[in-house]
TrEMBL record:
UniProt membrane topology term: Multi-pass membrane protein
Native source species: Nitrincola tibetensis
UniProt protein name: MFS transporter
GO molecular function: transmembrane transporter activity
GO cellular component: plasma membrane
The UniProt record lists the keyword Transmembrane helix: yes
Subcellular location: Cell membrane
Subcellular location, principal: membrane
Family matches, as Pfam families: MFS_1 (PF07690)
Residue spans crossing the bilayer: 12-36, 42-65, 167-190, 219-242, 254-275, 282-298, 304-321, 341-363, 369-388
Record's keyword annotation contains Transport: yes
Length: 438
């Protein structure tokens, strides 16, 4: 897996991802402490609102940014977004009102909603070899999981030397270091996008339209629903099970999250080997079944060891679906359209989280956590059946199709027939997936 780090450009971008993640992790801890300082007993409401603002920015800003900024230099744009995030982190320690926090969080998360899909879409342009790109996806997943373990520990260490305001200094340093590392990379020249497009609405929805017209990506969206069912229940209700049901401590809650992260890390480490032996669809559908099994099993948890086991399995299933998604997006797009598709995946997947988070909490209170696990298990089962239908087992890269409405002199069919075959993706010339009869 680590041989991909021999590529200088990717290595610099991977390091940029790590330092930015550490900065974000420190900001998460610092934001909790800031909320408590400003709102005391109502800190949970402040944090919940901030998370909602984050999700709204992710859902709506990502596709809009992809439409507005696609013609700009990717390197300059990524560096600018890192500097914007660093600037927001500079101001956060000095806020005195809760509404200040909300405004700054919206700016910070809007910059992240612009940054993350563009950064993700750049990696397959640098690593054109699919095996190397698969390794990079696994490393990226590993980085996210390690950040969840390292950032809280680093924050605890820093708090022995400084006040919570000092944690934002680490955030600023992380984003600036990320910007400097990105500046050291020579980005491949991106193919020019088609300029003959209509207004801002068409440009903004372009990635989502292409995404929803691609069968394998419709299947991915269905599996994203299962992912959020499992992830939201773990994130929202772990503390309820561990501390209210079992009567254990906050340390035990942290340990439960560690098992979930451990499962995700296990999946990331094993994924390159698994994808040499099976298709993406097989692995991802199998992982969805694992999530369904875990959700139904969680409704009957009676001991902390059972919880650790189930959380590990849920973490593995979560990552076996999330991590290969970049391969599907790359396979389903031309280079010049890739940022639009990654932005669509970013937006649509976070829309699932936007519903799953509050439902996991609200249903957990109204129905009880055990019954809520069963409800979410049923939703995940429906998502699995939908994914089976939407993503056919026969999913070739080269597809025979027919252009009925093209004039005889159209460039696309000038050197071939109306009925022809080539690697097929949804684009301006192919707006619908061909039926099997074609």
């Amino acid at each position: 897996m680590f041989t991909v780090l021999a590529n200088h450009s990717y290595r610099q971008l991977f390091l940029a991802q790590i330092v930015a993640l550490l900065g974000t992790g420190l900001a998460t801890v610092a934001l909790s402490l800031l909320a408590y300082d400003l709102a005391d007993d109502h800190a949970g409401m402040v944090i919940g609102t901030a998370l909602t603002i984050k999700m709204l920015a992710y859902v709506f800003i990502a596709p809009l940014a992809s439409a507005l900024f696609r013609a700009l230099s990717r390197r300059k744009l990524l560096v600018t977004l890192d500097l914007i995030r660093a600037s927001v982190a500079v101001f956060l320690p000095f806020v005195s009102e809760v509404w200040h926090v909300y405004i700054l969080i919206f700016i910070l998360q809007s910059a992240s909603a612009c940054f993350t899909p563009l950064f993700q879409a750049t990696i397959p342009d640098i690593l054109e070899n699919e095996e190397q790109y698969t390794q990079a996806l696994s490393l990226s997943r590993l980085a996210y999981d390690l950040e969840n373990l390292i950032s809280p520990a680093l924050a605890a260490l820093m708090l022995t030397l400084m006040t919570w305001q000092g944690l934002f200094t680490g955030t600023v340093i992380g984003f600036i270091a990320s910007a400097l590392l990105i500046l050291s990379v020579t980005f491949p020249i991106m193919k020019a996008a088609n300029k003959n497009r209509s207004g801002i609405y068409q440009k903004t929805t372009r990635g989502i339209r292409f995404y929803l017209a691609t069968p394998r990506l419709r299947g991915l969206l269905a599996m994203n629903v299962a992912v959020t069912c499992a992830g939201a229940m773990v994130i929202v209700n772990s503390v309820v099970i561990v501390q209210s049901t079992f009567g254990l401590s906050a340390q035990d809650t942290a340990l439960a999250f560690t098992f979930f992260g451990g499962g995700s890390m296990f999946a990331a480490l094993t994924m390159p080997c698994l994808l040499k032996r099976m298709q993406d669809r097989t692995l991802m559908l199998g992982a969805t079944l694992l999530l369904i099994l875990g959700l139904f099993s969680a409704s009957r948890i009676s001991h902390i060891i059972e919880l650790w086991t189930i959380w590990f399995l849920l973490g593995a299933g979560y990552a076996w679906i999330q991590t290969p998604s970049g391969r599907l997006l790359t396979r389903s797009s031309h280079e010049e359209d890739r940022p639009d598709l990654f932005a669509a995946q970013f937006s649509l997947s976070h829309a699932c989280w936007l519903f799953a988070y509050p439902l996991a909490g609200w249903l957990g209170v109204k129905l009880g956590v055990s019954l809520t696990f069963s409800v979410f298990g049923m939703v995940a089962l429906l998502a699995f059946l939908l994914a089976l239908k939407l993503w056919p087992a026969e999913d070739p890269e080269v597809v025979e199709h027919y252009h009925a409405n093209f004039p005889e002199n159209h460039p696309h069919i000038a050197h071939s027939k109306r009925l022809h075959s080539h690697p097929f993706v949804i684009d301006d010339l192919h707006e619908k997936w061909p039926r099997k009869s074609n």
